Amino acid sequence: QVQLVESGGGLVHIGGSLRLSCSASGSIFRVDFMGWYRQAPGSQRELVASITSGGTISYSHSVNGRANISRDNAKNTVYLELNSLKPDDTAVYYCNFISENGRAWGQGTQVTVSS
Question: Among 26, 28, 27, 7, which Cα is nearest to 18's?
Answer without folding.
Answer: 7
